[in-house]
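Fold it.
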Amino acid sequence: MDSKITKFEHFINDFLREQLRELYEEREKVSHQAAEYLQLQRAIQNLQRSVASDESGGKEVRMQVDIGCSFFCQANVPDASKIFVCLGMGIFCEMSHEDAVDFIEKKQQLLQKRIDHLSDQCAEVKARIQIGLQALSELQGLSVSVDQGKGHDPGS
């Protein structure tokens, strides 16, 4: 009986908790991607405003560009009418501002569905862990029957 309890403890701790950790990490990555696309959408909207407010009617824009590790430098963009957007998996596509905003909105919807799905999976694994812990406590004789009153200390 003790070997079964030990195997069950290992299953909960080594498999289910690890699976939950991986799901949390994946959800965090997807949330980070969604935040980056939202930031890109705001940047495109700012870019559209700056191009629209340009008195010369030109498409040239002067802006600060992140060159890595939060270091910025001034850059002159001769034609800001199109931008490159990461489609995923390292693939970039040149798009107009309107097309990029449309793409970002659709991408945000897909990412939100993925986040919701991962959240559901996290809840399922949490429930399995709780059921497993409950079963484990019953196997070890630490259970309290449901019809005992609330606030009853199982250790007394």
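The two ends are 25 Å apart (CA to CA).
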